[in-house]
Q: What sequence folds into this?
């Protein structure tokens, strides 16, 4: 959610810290702060630009930490911005995550005479570390002792004026990685800031603490008190792929990358001769997977909707019962059934979503096989599942999930195909699906080439206050996803519904000009959805329809029609989602909104 960067080495830390915060700004963006050894601290409410403008040109030093905040405890003010200091004014600390027992710890510290300047749980942690930082103690010992008292999640970086070249960092539930540079060591909560400087990184795991010095680093388990040797990994994302490549917004760039993403997600996974699929990452769980009798898919937001598409596909192709549950609910439900014959699939772009991670951990504790469909390699969920399939969508910076959603749907399609072919799906049907999957990227390109027409329709409806999205079977989750996309970036109230539900309530909303977006490809349920559209038309509602090429019949009922190429009906969600993403994008653009960073949202939701 929030972002952390740090550096200790031989060069001036300030430019990296500021640029690093900019690269992380999508993670949390209501205030920011920087500490540089020998200079002190600058904090500001607002965007990184506000902080950058406040940092004097002379603010130079070789060790420093910085933070960008997404408020959880206390409003986004300068006082609540990180870094926070201990009582002796020796230590500065930045923190991602939530200290659950902060109130209790604060009370104890207050009773011992400590006073606080902010409302944050982070300042409690800073003061706590300070209380253990005695004259004969080194910083890492004080941090370790403080962490014993803490309940909750954290990724922290701590510096001290007494040990001015040292950064101590530790994680439990909030991602952190170390970058091995030629001029020193980098620290970040995400790969983006370190990419311009190094591709060699070490991801810290939960319970680990690292001590960074300009010419050395050491990692140890702060729970087990043992030294840990960890392999250095090479990042394969280059810095350029995290930039906008000339598009006005990351969201548009990421939508336009979708044909390439489809190819990347499919690469090496289609078994053309057998009409099946293979998924790297699942080798070690193949046997257990064969014995599975029930699947639970979980995720949040768009990842959950991708799971709903997966449900239709897996049940249709493989005949395995699938339940899909939002992770924030699943984590509080009682698991039933035989865990040995159940697999939980966690779907997450970031691999760091707190609710999804917790649902996964509970499923594991219950003895289920756990799989991940994850974009970010090395993320916590990817590491904690029994096996993970990576989406290969590349970094997604826009808060709205676009290419990641599509890649999640593709991975779940491949999984359904594989499970299906291992069970009841005929070779003939498998071969047809493989054939149509191979053409999906070209079809996606065709849809995106129609962006201007979609933009024109979007401009026409940019003023609306409400919208309904409807669809059936494969198109029902697409309707949910389309509505989410519109509401999160354009702030227009939008709801997705199974088209058959219209008569059970939502049709009461329909009046002159009320917009319904109807997902109506020429599939096995087209006639049914068309009837729903007729009912809306009869009540003078406006309709934007998404259908398949050649379906001229629909132009009679809808005000506007957006076309996608024809393909196997199980694969159409990938195509019908695209006009909805572009529609939301162009509506938000016409309304002049901050598309990549909508208000109140963050890219990775690492708190409950
Ligand atoms: O990183 P994740 O896929 O776990 O994120 C899940 C949701 O937070 C995410 O899909 C969110 O709903 C997006 N803003 C939707 O566009």
A:
């Amino acid at each position: 959610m929030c972002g952390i960067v740090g550096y200790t080495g031989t060069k001036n830390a300030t430019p990296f810290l500021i640029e690093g915060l900019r690269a992380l700004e999508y993670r949390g963006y209501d205030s920011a702060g920087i500490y540089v050894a020998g200079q002190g601290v600058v904090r500001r409410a607002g965007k990184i630009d506000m902080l950058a403008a406040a940092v004097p040109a002379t603010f130079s030093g070789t060790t420093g930490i910085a933070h960008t905040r997404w408020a959880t405890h206390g409003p986004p003010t300068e006082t609540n911005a990180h870094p926070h200091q201990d009582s002796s004014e020796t230590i500065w600390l930045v923190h991602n995550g939530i200290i659950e027992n902060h109130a209790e710890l604060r009370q104890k510290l207050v009773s011992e005479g400590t006073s606080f300047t902010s409302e944050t749980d982070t300042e409690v942690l800073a003061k706590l570390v300070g209380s253990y930082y005695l004259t004969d103690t080194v910083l890492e010992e004080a941090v370790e002792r403080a962490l014993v008292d803490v309940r909750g999640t954290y990724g922290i970086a701590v510096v001290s004026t007494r040990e001015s070249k040292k950064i101590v960092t530790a994680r439990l539930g909030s991602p952190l990685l170390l970058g091995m540079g030629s001029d020193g060591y980098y620290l970040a909560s995400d790969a983006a800031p370190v990419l311009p400087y190094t591709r060699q990184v070490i991801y810290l795991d939960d319970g680990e603490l690292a001590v960074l010095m300009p010419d050395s680093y050491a990692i140890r388990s702060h729970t087990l008190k043992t030294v840990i040797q960890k392999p250095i990994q090479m990042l394969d994302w280059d810095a350029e792929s995290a930039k906008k490549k000339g598009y006005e917004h990351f969201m548009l760039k990421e939508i336009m990358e979708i044909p390439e993403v489809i190819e990347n997600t499919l690469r090496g996974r289609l078994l053309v001769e057998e009409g099946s699929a293979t998924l790297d990452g699942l080798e070690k769980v193949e046997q257990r997977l064969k014995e599975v009798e029930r699947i639970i898919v979980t995720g949040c937001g768009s990842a959950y909707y991708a799971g709903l598409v997966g449900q239709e596909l897996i049940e249709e192709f493989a005949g395995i019962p699938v339940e899909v549950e939002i992770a924030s609910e699943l984590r509080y439900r009682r698991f039933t059934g035989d865990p040995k014959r159940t697999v939980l699939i966690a779907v997450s772009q970031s691999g760091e979503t707190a609710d999804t991670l917790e649902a996964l951990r509970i499923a594991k504790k219950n003895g289920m096989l756990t799989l991940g469909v994850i974009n970010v390699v090395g993320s916590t969920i990817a590491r904690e599942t029994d096996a993970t399939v990576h989406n290969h969508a590349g970094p997604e910076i826009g808060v709205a999930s676009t290419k990641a959603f599509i890649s999640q749907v593709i991975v779940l399609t491949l999984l359904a195909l594989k499970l299906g072919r291992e069970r009841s799906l005929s070779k003939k049907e498998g071969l047809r699906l493989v054939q149509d999957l191979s053409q999906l990227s070209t079809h996606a390109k065709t849809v995106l080439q129609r962006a201007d027409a979609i933009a024109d329709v979007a401009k026409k409806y940019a003023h609306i206050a409400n919208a309904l999205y409807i669809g059936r079977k494969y198109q029902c989750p697409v309707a949910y996803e389309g509505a989410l996309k519109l509401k999160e970036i354009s702030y227009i109230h939008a709801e997705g519904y199974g088209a058959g539900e219209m008569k059970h309530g939502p049709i009461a909303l329909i009046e002159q000009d009320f917009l319904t977006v109807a997902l109506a490809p020429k599939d096995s349920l087209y006639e049914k959805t068309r009837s729903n559209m007729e009912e809306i038309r009869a009540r003078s509602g406006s309709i934007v329809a998404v259908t398949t090429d050649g379906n001229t019949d629909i132009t009679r009922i809808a005000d506007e029609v957006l076309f996608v190429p024809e393909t196997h009906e199980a694969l159409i969600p990938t195509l019908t989602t695209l006009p909805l993403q572009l529609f939301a994008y162009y509506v938000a653009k016409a309304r002049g909104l901050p598309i990549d960073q909508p208000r109140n949202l963050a890219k990775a939701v690492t708190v409950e």
About this structure: The radius of gyration is 25 Å.
